[in-house]
Structure formats: structure tokens, C-alpha cells
Amino acid sequence: MTAATSRYEAGRLPVARRTVRALATPGGAIYILLGVLLVLLFLYNPSLGESGQFMRFIGRTAPIAIVALGQYFVIVSGELDLSMGAVISAQVVLAGNLIGQHADRVLPVMVLMLVVGIVIGLLNGVLTTLFRVPSFIATLGTTLIVSGVTFYSTGGAPSGNPVDSFRAIGRAGIENVPLLGFVPYSVIILVVLVGVAIWLMRRPFGRLLLSVGDNQAATALTGASVWWLRTRGFILSSIASTIAAVILVGYAGVSPVVGQGYEFIAITAVVLGGVVLGGGRGWVLSAIAAAFALEVLFSLLDFVGVQSTWRPAVQGVIIVVALGAPLLRWHRGRRHSETTVAPSPSPGESVED
Amino acid sequence: MSSIGPSLRARLSSTTAMVYGVLVVVIIVSVIIGATLGRNFFSQGNLTVLLTSTTVLGFVTIGQTLVILLGSLDLSVPFTVSISSVLAAGVMAGQPGNLLPGIITALAATTVIGLVNGLLVGLVKINGFIATLGVGLIVSGYLFTNYQGSTGKASPQLASLGDLTVGFVPVMTIVMALFFLAVVFFLTRTRTGMHTYAVGGDPAVARMSGVHNAVPIIVAHSLSGLFAGLAGLVIVARLGVGSPGVGTQGGYDLLSIAAVVLGGAVLAGGRGSLWGSLGGILIFACIDSVMGIMQLNPYLKDVVRGLVIIVAVAIYARRSVPVRISRFPASTVGSAASVKERDL
Amino acid sequence: MMFGVIGALALILTGCAPGSNTSSNNSSAPTAKPNASFSQAQFDLENSQRTATFVGDPSTPYLQYLAGAMVKPAGFARTTPGKVCFSNAALSNTWRQTGWITMNQQLAVLKSQGVISQLEARNAQDSDNTQVADIDYFIKENNCDAYIIAPNSPQATAPAVQRACATGKPVIIFDRGAGTDCQTSFVHSVGGMAWGIDSASFIADNVKKGGKVIALRTAPGVDVFEQRWAAAQHIFDQAGLTVTDYLTGADPAKIKSTITDEIAKGDIAAVWVDLGDQAVPAIEAFEDAGKKIPIVTGEDNLAYLRAWKDKGFTGFAPVYSAYQWRTALLAVADLFQGKEIPKNWVLPQVPVKAAELTAVLTKNAGMPDGQYARFGGEDLPGFPKVWQDRVIP
After folding, report:
1. Fewer CB atoms inside 10 Å of the end CB: C or N, chain A?
2. Would you call C245 helix, strand, or coil by DSSP?
3. SS3 content of chain C, % helix, strand, coil (to 5)
4. How close does chain B come to C132, measured CA to CA in Å?
5. Are residues A267 and B129, on separate chains, in Cβ contact within 8 Å?
6. A131, B307: Cβ pair inside 8 Å?
7. pLDDT at residue C106 above 90?
């Protein structure tokens, strides 16, 4: 609620001051971090400036960005989805085993994958809302079940890569585009999904989803169905995992470990984008920017040549510093404004405690 | 505070009772399945193995319970367990005289890691999920840069404790039980312990009641580091060597969190108990034991584990008072609860 | 605040940059400590064994062995079928799954011959601590007539293996070693170092001094992978190649991105992997970047062999023989039947070279990508259907 009111206040300020204000929040600082990382990446890898290369780069970040997008809908409503990695693996194996070398099976199998995704999302949502299993546990449980069933039914070994026409979704693109050179299909999918996400968040659904995360009781009083709002968040998350899986099969091929750990990267990205765990606050674009920033960072580590075993540590330091530094300043600022403006304890602080 | 005391205690004990109810059901099913396969679930051998396998997870879960009671999480435990094992085994190097230096080095290091987690969560106010994930990654970088595989050697005294039993109870389990009781005492009888529940339940109210919220957070995270360190020592005793991957192998992060929740705790903090967590661990141990006897396909084991977690927690949720302690200021909690009850 | 983030970031990146540049120029050896997994004695031993002549018929490689000390079956021979207890480290990769399927088909044969009555298996799911508990359970509860142990980590399972030995029953270790020598016999393919020597020597022979090699490693701290890498690193250093290694977690998306970045940095002469199927996304990265595929080594995993055949690059497939799973069971059967077995049962491990690629693929037609070509179970009942369907018992 605080975020909403301050956003309306800011709306009356000139654009320049509004921008500066926005950048000073955790959700805004990510764009600066992203900018710095991008400049560094271009310095280390000048070939990114060549025709099509940068588009290819965005293309390979698309799965993570899409997964972060899905996770955003869940986190902003106050929950967590740990099942994304398992859903991706299951869908990848499903695509590999069912499509095989039959081009005519591509469409039916994609429909099946979508249905599987929706069912898992629905299951996560219903368990969390109607059965009141905390989402951390509910989605951990579905992770175990989904990956267990996947491995059991395939004997752990996917039969092989699906037909190339299906893999083209994640591997090919449109050649000879003016200015851009090469545009991977995954970039187009990403752009469309980001557009849809922004549109959704401006619709009543999106606003209610935010308000469920911020204050469930007040949202319930408006007559909104809390469980169905959250459940739709989970369904969107599983659909995002499914789309990411389709791109990943194309980009990298079938492997039961594909997608492993994506849920943690997605959560990190969403939080790095200033979205508060516990819900109620955060911009969808910042979450995407953070996912992109993480991928730029991973690539930068390739170019800088950090010793392989130290790379997780560098990631860890950057996560902690990037999150810690703005918070330190932010809390100081808020504490100051609290004493002068708001007498009541701010919800922002109690979340972190 | 005193007015909500009894009701809180009643609620806790009712959840804990349910945890043990689930445990009893699991044991009965295990005994029946064991019997149909011609095995005695309560044989000394099986009980010894069952208790041994709970000991490492038990230590980790004690720390995790403290952290979760505060509404935080510790995802760095696998790496803390590993670093404890490599430091202890490295310093001991099989020498009897190095037993204490090894133990002290390992526990000091892991407590400092916990302290760093606590400072990040309590003072910098980074979300516990992310802070401990980040710290875990940093520790893993150190581990795998400096250790390529099994390393060091347990001192002979520690190694002989590893498979020593009193009757059918492993000595390490007895040690774990003593620490467990000490922490129960800490939670219920000391000021910081009681503040843990207060801060986890409602930080704003705790702060207004004069609690320094950062103190219990920092203490709990440090203790979580310490207990992960102890878990690492148990591993050194059992395996005779330290290993940089031993914590990740055990999956102690998610397993310990699941055990705590299986024990009736609420992830948002403020509710749960060590006795409940103990029940949670035992539920896991019994299921694993019986699935081992059944020679169940390893992938199906995961399916069963997932089902049990979900079903058990859903049972608790149906029975217990439907208040989700969340981040609302105290004034709205009452109304939130009543609205929810009306809603259902 | 932003300055805080940027400052810290700059510090990290500049702090890393100089050290890492030297490290990537000369592999990670000079800046880092020497690889602790490297043992010259082991290297020399496996180097000589990989080209040695094996006793027995090459058409049944799972029965071949290197001449050496034999174990007398005294006391182990039985007139009734015996019960075998198998503590398995994991089934978490396709090599282990292939071996496990083969072992079960071998078990069916031995059961029908009345040699083995039952195989009780426990799976430690990649955890040392669980495996120790599994072995202890067998000792205390099971009245096993023999133990087969596939250790997760050699040193860590040693105390439990010693307890199994103390029961006086035969104990067969296979795959990774046991960090003790109390076992009746240790069944294994020549070894991880030989695997690394085979593949790295192929690269060293075909790449000019100073050429750039990318090494893709699955996971740190896992004994098998560390052995393969330690040997390969040694060969690369001796040949004066420029090596950069990456830890991939076996994630194909990460592998492809990493290779794409490395292609942007400069020409790559060869890619070395420590697990076969990881070569495939690396190969595709070159295709997608429009570059000629350089030398890419893999393993006898069919995903790699098929890509090698289809795309026609310079390849090489070292082998870590999956038939050792059935040999372990056969070793127990031999003891039960009163036959001698080698104390250290070293099985041949013959790499797949370009000349026999087509023949090997033809033999494995219809198998899934996760199958290992030299799995050595063609003569068992259920072939090929059981391996194609991949029913994991």
C-alpha cells in the first residue's frame, strides 16, 4: 500500500525527479546494475556489437527471464514456487520422448505440455490456498512428485532429442532483419510475454494480485476471490516454466538436468528486481531486468575468466552486496521519513524481520 | 504477552500432538509393511540404523528450527556441514592430540558463517532466503577451490565414537539428544529464547515491547551455523574423513526445512517447536527406513516423500487455527483472522 | 547506494581479472595449487594398464582381467543359492542406469542357474552418510551371504566396508575404490585417470602447442570426475596447451552459453568433457555460431556417438566400461561356485575411435540416447528390449 501511494505522489512530479526517485528504490537500482554489467560485458566482448550477436545473447537469456516472469506472479501474491525446475525437466523429457522424430506430433504434444503445466500450477495453487499447505512445502512436494514420476517413467534416460522443426523454436530465428540482423524466435516470445505480463499487471487481475500479497484481508473484503487469484499466479508460473522448457529443448537439447536450479535463479532475480518476498510490492519489468542482469553477470564471468570453482562465490557476493547495499540506504531513508511522516510501523520493515 | 500465552501454548501442543499422531500412523504402516516382507521394524539393528541416519539431520534441524521460528531460513547449511567436515578432518589429520583443536576450528568457522547470515538478515535486513543462499554460494566457492575430494582423517577417539552404541542407541544420537534438550531449555527458559517466538510471531509488536529484534535473529543464525558444524563433526566421526560435497549430498537444506514444517512449524515464523521438529525427523526416518526395506525404486521414493510432506502439512493446516502470521501490524491481525474464518 | 553496488562490483571484477587472465593462459595449474587428486603413481599405473594385454576372450570383455594375484574361494563355495546384498551409491546418471539394467539381467541368469537366490539392493542416492547406514543395515539385519558395494566416495565408505569385511563373507567392491584393501576383490575398469589420459592424449596429439582447449567438468569434489580431470590436466600441461575449465553441473543450456562465449573470445582448438552427453550442446554451440566444429571428445554414450557420426567432426570416445556391473555379480557367483577370481579384477576399457564408429552405432541401433555403447550385455536375455525400454528395477 505504501508503494502504491508513493507511486501516485510521484506521478505529480516532473519526469526527471520521478526517474531519480524510482532509481533510488531497490526495484530501480537494478537498471543501474544492469547498465553497468552490460557496459562491462561489451568491453570484455566487443563482438557483441556485431550484427545479430546481441540479439542471440538476449535469446539465450529468454528462458531465465521467462521463468523469472512466472515466479514474479507467485512472489508478488505472497507465495513461492519451488517446482519450476522440476516442471521444466518434466516438460523437456516429455517433449523429447513424445515428439521424437515425428514432426506431426509437435502441435498435439505442445498442447499436452500446456495442459500438464496448467494442471501442476492448479495443484500448487489449490494445495497452497484451499489446503493451506505453505507454498514452500507444497511446491517442494510437487517438485519431488513431478521429478520422481518423470524419472520413473523414463528410466532416467530420455530417448533423444525431438525433431528439428520443434527445436527450431528455441534454436532458430528470423534472418536478415534490418538493423538487428538476426532475431531468435525466443526473443520474440520473450517480448510478447513481457508485453502480456505488463498488460496483466495493469488489469484488475494484476492489481488485485498485488493487493493480495500486500493485504489479504482487505482484498478479501473487496469481494475478490483470494484463493483463485493466487492459484492463477501459480498457473501462470507453471505455464512460464512450460514455455521456458520449449525454448530450452530447442536451445540446449533434451537432458533430465535441464532446468535444475532455475527456481532459485528465478527467485534471486525477482528479489534482486526489488520484489519483496512476502508479496505486495514490485515491478514486473524490474524482475525481468534482474534476470537479464544475472545472465549478463554469468556471461561476464566467462569473459573475465574467473576460476571455475570460485564462480559461485562471486555470484554469492554480488547477490548479497547488490541486495544489501540498497537496503541499507533504503532503511535509513525510510526510518527518517517514518519519524517525520508516518507514525505507524511500516510494513516494509516488518517483512524483512 | 501473558494473556496470549496459554492459547499459544495450547495451539502449539495441539499441532505437536498431531505431528506425533502422524508419526504413530507412519510407524504402524512401517511395521505392517516390514512384517509382510518378513522383517521386524523394531529389531535392534533397524532401530540403530534408523537413529544413526537421523542424527546428522537432527543436528541441522535443531538450528533450522530456531531460524524458522524467527521467520527466516538457512539455505547455507549444506555448505556449512561440508566445511565443518573438511576443517575438522583436516586439522585432526588422524592425530589423537588434535581432537580438540579440530573440533574448535570447525565449530568456530561454522558459527562465524552463521553469524554472517545473522548480521545480513538481522541488521542489513536482507531476506533470509536470499542472504543465506548468497552466503552458501560463497562458502561453496571456497570449499571446491580448496578441496577436490575426501580430505583429512578423523582423530581415533572421534572415529571410534562414530559407530559406538549404548544398547541399540548410537552415542552420537545421545549427544544430539543432549544438545536438543539444551536448546529446548534455551527457547523456553531464557530471555533471548522467548524473544525468538515474539520476534517471529510479530516483529512490530516485539519491537514495541522493547525487544531488540536483531539480537534473537543473530543468535539463532549463529546457532544454526554451530549446529550445522556439529552435524559435520558427526559425519567425520562416521566416515572417518571430511568431504567438500558431503552436505550437498545429504540435501540438508530442503530436508531440514521440510522436517521443521513436517513438525508443525509455520514458515512465516512465530509458531513451531523443537519437539515437533523431532517428530518431523522421525517421520522422515521411518518412511526412508521402510522404503529401504521395500527396495522401492529410488524415483518412486521421491514421489512418496513429496506426498507425505504435502499430506501431513495439509492435515495440520485443516485442524489448526487458520491464522497465518503475516506481516500485518498487530492491529490488523485480528481482523484478518476473523475475515478468513468467515470466508471459509 | 548505487555507488555501493557498482563499487563492490568493480572491486570484484577488477580483483578477479588479473589473476584469472594468467590462470586461463596456462590452465588453472600455475596460479592454483597443484591438483590434489593427481597422483603420479596412479597415473603411471593406469597409463600402463590401459594398453596392457588382458587375460581371456575379447568377445566376453566382462570376463577379462589383468594377470595378477588370485583369490581362493575357500570357505565361500556353497551348495545352495546364496543371498547377495548390494549397496549402490546411486542411479543418478545414465551410465549407472545402464549398468544396473545389465546387472539385473545377469542376475536373472544366475538365479535360473541356482547360484544366487536373491539380490537385495539399497540405493544411497549419492550420499556417503546414507551409504554407510545402508551397509550397516545389511550387516545387522540381513544374513547376507555376500556383499557387493559400489562406493560413493572411496575414503568415506572405508569404515563401513571394513565392518562388512569383518563379517567373514565375501565383499566385492566395484566402480570407485573403497579406500581399504580388506575386500575380497575389487572389480573395476582400468580407471578414471586412464579415461582422462585416453581423451586428453587424443587432443594433445591433434592440437598444436599453445592451442586453446576448453574443459567442461560436471561437478567438483566427485571422485570419478576429479580423477578424469586430474589426468587430463596433467597431459594438457605437458603438451603446453592453453586450457580453461568450466564447471557445468551437466546443464546443457549452461554448456552452450559458455561455449558461445568462448567462441567469441577466440578460436577453440578442442573441447574436452568429463561426461559424454555434455559434448552435444557444446557441438551445437559451434553450429549455431556458424563455426567449424573443432575436436570434441565425449564418451561411448550414444547421444555423443550419434552427434559425432551425423556431424562428422574429429571425435574420440573414451570408455569407462559399464559391464563392470555384471562382472561384480559374476565375481560373487564364481566364489559361490568355488572358482578363483582376481584379487584386483581390472577390466579392459577400450575407447571408441573413428574407424569403428559406424560399426558401434549399427550394433546399438534402436537404443535410446542415454545408452552406453560398450555396455556389454548383448548376450543376456531380454536384449535389446530391456535396454530400449529402460525399465529400472
Report:
1. N
2. strand
3. 45, 15, 40
4. 8
5. yes
6. no
7. yes
Who's near C366: CB < 8 A, 6+ residues apart? C384, C388
CA-to-CA distance for C152 and C158, rounded, in angstroms? 10
| Residue B294 neighbours by CB under 8 Å, 6+ apart | B33, B37
How far apart are the C-alpha atoms of A270 and C354, rounded to whole Å?
48
For residue B89, which amino acid is it?
A: A
Asked whether the beta carbons of residue C1 and residue A29 sit closer than 8 angstroms, the reply is: yes
Q: Do A160 and C253 touch (CB under 8 A)?
A: no
Check A158 against C369: CB less than 8 A apart. yes
Name chain A's partners: 3 or more CB pairs within 8 A: B, C
pLDDT digits (tens, 9 = 90+) for C175-206: 988 889 999 999 999 999 999 999 999 999 99
Report the distance separating Cα B112 and Cα C308, nearest Å: 50
pLDDT in tens, A41-73: 999 999 888 878 899 999 999 999 999 999 999
**Cβ contacts (< 8 Å) between C12 and chain A: which residues?**
314, 317-318
Q: Inter-chain contact A305–C23, Cβ cutoff 8 Å?
A: yes
pLDDT in tens, C252-271: 999 999 999 999 988 999 99
User: Is C164 touching B (CB cutoff 8 A)?
Assistant: no
Residue range of the domain that includes B159:
5-343
- By the CB < 8 Å criterion, does A107 face chain B? no
What pLDDT score does A306 carry? 84
Q: Given CB atoms, is C218 within the 8 Å cutoff of chain B? A: no
Neighbours of B188 (CB within 10 A): 12
- C257 Cβ partners below 8 Å, 6+ apart? A60, A298, A299, A302, C285
DSSP C352: B
| The listed CATH number (1.10.3470, 1.10.287, 2.40.160, 1.25.40) that belongs to domain A2-6+26-337 | 1.10.3470
Inter-CA distances, A9 with B5, B154, B291, Å: 43, 64, 60
Report how far residue B13's alpha carbon sits from residue A18's, in angstroms, rounded to the nearest whole number: 52
Q: Assess B195–C contact: CB distance below 8 Å, yes or no.
A: no
Cα–Cα distances (Å) from A213 to B101, B173, C31, C334, in that order, read: 49, 42, 50, 66
A36·C217 Cβ contact <8 A: no
ipTM: 0.86
- Name chain C contacts of A29, Cβ cutoff 8 Å: 1-2, 5
Supply the angle between the helices A26-44 and C2-25 in degrees, to the nearest 10: 30
Distances C177 to B108, C172, C223, C372 between C-alpha atoms, Å: 33, 10, 10, 22
- pLDDT digits over A101-126, tens only? 999 999 999 999 999 999 999 999 99
Q: Across the interface, do B203 and A349 touch by the CB < 8 Å criterion?
A: yes
How many angstroms separate the CA atoms of C140 and C143, rounded?
8
CB contact under 8 A, A155 and C8: no
Optimal mutation site among B22, B129, B133, B137, interface A, most CBs of chain A within 10 A: B137
Q: Which domains does chain C have, with CATH numbers?
A: 28-46+192-316 (3.40.50.2300), 58-191+321-351+375-389 (3.40.50.2300)
CA distance B55 to chain A (A): 23
Chain B contact present for A136, CB below 8 A:
yes
C-alpha distance from C154 to closest chain B C-alpha (Å): 8
Q: How far apart are CA A264 and CA B129, in angstroms?
A: 10
Single pTM value for the model: 0.88
Domain holding B318: CATH number? 1.10.3470
Provide the 3-class DSSP secondary structure of residue A235: helix
